[in-house]
Amino acid sequence: MTAAVAKMREVYAHIIETCCPGANSVSEISQALGIHRKLAWQIMKVAYATDPFVAAKHMPVAKSHQSWLTSLHKESHSKDLIQSTLDACDEFEAAVARHASNRTEFDMIVDSIGATGDVHVEERWRQSAFEGNSFTLGGHCKVLMALCILMPSDDKHSYFHAAQIRGIMGFRQTRAGIRWVVNQSVALDDSSQSESGMQRVAIDPEAARANNGVPVLPEFCTSPMPALTRKHGQGGMMQDEFLPSCVGMQGERSLVTGEILRNIAPVHATPEDRVAHFGTAVRTPAQLLHFDLFVRSGLFGDVQRELCVFSDLASPVSFEEQDALSVSGHVVKMGLGVSLAQTPDIPGYADLASTVFSRLRISPSDYELYRIRMAYPPMPTTVMVKHELVPAELLSGDPGQ
Fold it and tell me: Are the C-beta atoms of 269 and 257 separated by less than 8 Å?
């Protein structure tokens, strides 16, 4: 494939330099060759793109080649030049046919293996998946929200608690009679074993009792409260579900839940657990994923956090490298506290964060905020913040104790 692309680049560059020497703009090439601006732009991209995958992506289709060559013939350019272009086109089309059944599949392959990390290209593909999944599965939402606060344990030395706030904002059914999983959570070690000592405590116990055990935060949910249920799954998985409601805008609802996972694990490395993953599952077609991680300063020592996205097709939760997806994006360090927590996607979000800190009776000024924002997040996946765990002897102490 790269050889065919290289030959096309060479031919295109030669034609530009022969037929319109010195041209360095789309307008100049379009006028000199007597072709449409879009075709001129494609020719220029192919000729001068530094990445062969970018060049392949912008290669004109066969019909456009014919239009261009007809133009060259009318201008009485060299027959050898035209023939070399035809030969290069045939070689490229043959390469496409070897790798893909059509041009759409070829573009998908090129975009998947290209090294450009073009976020906009990825988002276009994921938007198509969002629309298809919304139709097929029968629902979608505007924003999937996850807010996680990691704090030192108040009753178990060197352990930590996590406050998990989950939101599904602007959810709509597109088909009647469906139930919908809105939350899934589990705590696992490196060997995917459940952390058996962990306890779950609702941030608002009274509201949880009134809603089938789902730890809702009513003041941040739509009213009346959506019909809900909570189920216990295998391997320690906890699952909250919407029950069926009206289709479309008449049934639009938002849900925010909050619970504390107490004494999840040690803050330092152990023989069973050397890497920390803090994530949120994507099980709903969403226009946007908003994931905030607040960490007590120094809780895990000086670590580097990175974004990981794992496919959950093979198992409900995976940390395996072969399940890692190539998704552009990164973890953004926002600073201390909630002063920078505002977001245009969730009105009142900073107030939500402040309320949670208040109920936990901890000061947000002691917590560093890390953020991930991802348009049309792929599903089913788990989007995670990953970092190495530091050996116990290298930690300076237990923050907050």
Answer: no
Max CA separation in the chain (angstroms): 86
Between CA 84 and CA 97 the distance in angstroms is 20
Q: Which amino acid is at 74?
A: K
All CATH 2.60.40 domain ranges of the chain, comma separated, are 138-394
Q: What angle do CA 269, 324, 331 make, to 5 degrees?
A: 65
List, in order, residues 6 or more apart from 173 with CB less than 8 Å away.
138, 139, 180, 244, 245, 246, 247, 248, 251
Structure-token pair, residue 88: 């290069």
pTM for this structure?
0.78
Instruction: Output DSSP code: residue 393.
Output: G
Q: What string of pLDDT tens digits covers the 401 residues of the chain?
A: 788 888 888 888 888 888 788 777 888 888 887 788 888 888 888 888 888 777 887 888 777 776 667 666 655 556 777 788 878 888 888 888 888 888 778 877 777 775 455 678 888 889 999 999 999 999 999 999 999 999 999 999 999 999 999 999 999 999 998 888 888 766 554 554 455 567 889 999 999 999 888 899 999 999 988 888 888 766 667 788 888 888 888 889 999 999 999 999 999 999 888 999 999 999 999 999 999 999 999 999 999 999 999 998 887 777 788 888 988 889 999 999 998 899 999 999 999 999 999 999 999 999 999 999 999 999 999 999 999 999 988 886 655 54
Residue with tokens 């809900």: 228
Residue range 138-394 forms a domain whose CATH class is mainly beta
